[in-house]
Structure formats: structure tokens, C-alpha cells
Amino acid sequence: MRGWGVLALASVLFVSSGCAGDYVARTRGVRSAYQQGDYSRALESLEAATREGPQQDQLLVLMDKGMVLHAAGQWAESNAVLEEAERLSEQLDSVSVSEEAATLVTNERQRAYRGEDFEKLMISVLQALNYVELGDDEAAMVEVRQVNDRLEKMIAEEKKPYEQLAIARYLGGVIREDQRDWDSAYIDYAKAYEIASRKEALAEPLLRLARKVGRDDMYEELLAKYPDVPHAPLAPDEGQLVVVVEAGLSPEKQRSSRSSGDGGGLIEVPVYRTRGLAAPVNVALEGQSTQAVTVTSLADVAVVHLDDRIGRLLAKQIAGVAVKAGVAAGVGALTKSDELGVLTFLVLNAMNAPDLRSWLSLPAEFQVARFRVSAGSHTIRVTSWGRTTEHPVEVKPGRIGVLVVRRY
Fold first, then answer.
1. What is the pTM of this model?
2. Alpha-carbon distance 264 to 311, whole Å?
3. Residue 119, Cα to own-chain centre: how many angstroms?
4. 236: which residues sit within 8 A by CB, 6+ positions away?
5. Phi, psi (5° rounding) for residue 23?
6. 123 contacts 102 by C-beta, under 8 angstroms
7. What is the DSSP code string of 344-355?
8. Is 406 helix (H, G, I), strand (E, B) or coil?
């Protein structure tokens, strides 16, 4: 009977093992409303979809809510939620030994979702953009520095094959230039330039500031590459406007089979797949028109970060198979039934499903468009897939305004 009790428990775990992993299915309506720009309905749907959901999904709930509020232009409300997500993420990083042990017998979907490395970084990136929109450059720089410091630690100390996020470096350059910290702005722009998906997006500020701070060698090098990029100093009555476009849909996880490497067959792991190309976005400002240029592809970043984790996932799943085999052998010994031992192993092993949860409301890309204009009131027109929206902006002399828009 004890063996049957173990098997019954395993069966219950098998039936319930999908609960934590159902977040993606439960929030399908949320994403539909969100991608239609109906943010009120998206928030209502998120509340309804998660009201009865397991605690293991709490970080995803907070991240999605923070992103929806961000896209809706509710900058302060978004930051309040994202700060809560950041605190929870830090708590979850303190690994629960009991929770980890349980996943050896069940699967990764049974534990609290902790977020991929890049998702944790994106909490701070979104907070920085929120603070910029709120006019709080100092708070924005705190978030930018946090992103950069975390990545430096991951790269230098944890030996992860990551690189800096160009959008964070670029945003740091914008903020520091606005504060007239010219050399620090140049350094941030230069670091963003090294890793940007499309380097020409940073040519103008790099040329202008390299000349301004006396970095003559770099100025000559850049001038040779971009001889046709105008970069004269701003006139006293001029300002700048940077439009940050959060474009497209972040990649989603799907199942993939990998060899265990020891003759033990195939083990399922998550991999990212893209959800179509990000929309080409045209940005126009009173006679000037340009296509926003990709600075950071989150679709590419996501793949690098998850691939780095696959080795650890495989090792853990191989260990899990050994644990399940031990449990099954114990059941067989207790019941004096080899058949029941084999059945127990099959049931436990059938629970070996990859965790397909992810922060699906993130964009696929961060694109930028940059203008220099006379100080005063202006109207920005953003067009993608035939849809145009208008955004009033105020540009101050010698300052840089930032406008954040979401396109799907």
C-alpha cells in the first residue's frame, strides 16, 4: 500500500504539474488586448487571469503589469510595480533548497519563476525609461548604472558569455549629455556603439561629442566612416529629441529535445523562437523623417542568455532522472513488484516538461530615431504598418527630450 501511495502522489503531481506552466495560456487574452493597445482591458484581463493562479507566477504577473502600465504611459504606476518585481526577483534569487529538490522529482514548472538574466535587467531598463519620461534623470541614471554593473559582474565574475545592453548605454549617454557631462556621455555612446545592432544610429552624437571633448583620433576615425553625417554643434536656440521605439514582440519559449550526452536518450529543454519581424517604424518631425534604427535586439539577447543556461538545465534534468529512478526502485522494493517500480518511474519521468514561461509583453527590439530641432512645441508622428499616431513634445534649448512609444 505504501508503494501505491507513492504512485498516487506521483500521479497527482503529474496532473498538477502543468498548473504553474499554464501562465502563458491563462494570459493569452491579456496579450491580445495589450497588442491592440487596449491597456485598460489588458490590465483587467491580467487581474482576472491571475486571481486564482499559483504563487509561482507572481514575478511574471508583476513584470507583465509593469510593462502594460509602461506602454500605457503610466510611468509612475509602472515604476511602483516594477520596483515590487525587482524586490521579489532578489528574494527568489535566494534559492530555496526544498523547492530545488522538489523539481528533481517533478519539473522546472513547479518552482517560482525567477526570470531569465536579461529579463531581470529589463526591469531596470524600463524603470530608467519611466524616470526619463517623468523628468527624473538622476533616478534614471541609478537604474542605468545598475544594469551596467550587473552585466559587468555577470561577465567578469560569473564568466557568462554576455555583452553590455546597447540601449542602456545609449540611454546613459543621452542623460549625461543632457546634464552636460560631455566626456561621460561620449564614453557611454562609444560603448553603445561597440555593441549596437545598427552602429549608424550613434554616429551623429559620437562625432559631435568626440570633437567637443578633444578625442581627435576617434573623431577622425568616425569621420572617415561617416563622412556624410552632419554633426555641427547645436545652435543656442536648438535642442534635441530622441524617440525610443519599443518594437515587435519578444520571442517565446518552445520545447526542444537535446541529447543527455550519456546514452540516456533525449531530454526536453526550452528554446526561444521569434514571433515575426519587428515593424519598420517611421518617425517624422516637421519636415524631417527617418526610419527608427535598431539599437538592441532583445530577440538576440534572449537566445544568448538562455543558451548559457541550457548546460545547467541538462545537468539538472539528468540528476532528476537519477532521483526518479531511485524513487521508482524504492517503490518496487517496498511492493515487491518490479512492474510497479517501472510504472512509477514512467509516471515520474512523464512529468519532465520544460518551463515555457517568459516575459512575453517585452518588445523584440529597442529602436531609436534622433532629431535636432529649434526649441519650442513640436508634434512627432510615428507610423508603422500603416498606422500613425501623433505625440506633442516640448523641446528646450540645449536640452534633450525623450519620447517612448510602443509598436507591435
1. 0.85
2. 16
3. 4
4. 397, 398
5. -55, -40
6. no
7. HHHHHHHT----
8. strand
Q: Tell me the three state secondary structure of residue 223.
A: helix
Which of 12-21, 38-47, 67-76 shows the lowest per-residue confidence on average (mean pLDDT)? Answer: 12-21
Element (H, E) at 116: none
10 Å CB burial of residue 210 (0-12, 13-18, 19+) is: buried
Q: Which residue has 510595480 as its cell numbers?
A: 81
Angle at 323 between CA 321 and CA 324, to 5 degrees: 65
DSSP-assigned states of every residue in 42-77: HHHHHHHHHTTS-GGGHHHHHHHHHHHHHHTT-HHH
Q: Where are the domains of the chain?
A: 2-407
CB atoms within 10 A of CB 136: 16
What gap in Å lies between CA 347 and CA 349, rounded to an integer? Answer: 5
CA–CA separation, 396 and 239 (whole Å): 6
Yes or no: is domain 2-407 CATH 3.90.1150.10? no
> Which residues, in sequence order, are CB contacts of 155 under 8 Å at separation 6+?
162, 163
Mean pLDDT over residues 19-25, rounded? 71
| CA–CA distance, 57 with 24 (Å, rounded to integer) | 10
Residues with Cβ < 8 Å from 27, sequence gap 6 or more? 45, 46, 49, 50, 64, 360
- Angle between the N-to-C axes of helices 117-133 and 298-335, in degrees from 0 to 180, rounded to the nearest 10: 140
User: Using 50, 70 and 90 to split pLDDT, how confident is the model at 308?
Assistant: confident
d(CA 169, CA 195): 10
| pLDDT, tens only, 119-162 | 999 999 999 999 999 999 999 999 999 999 999 999 999 999 99
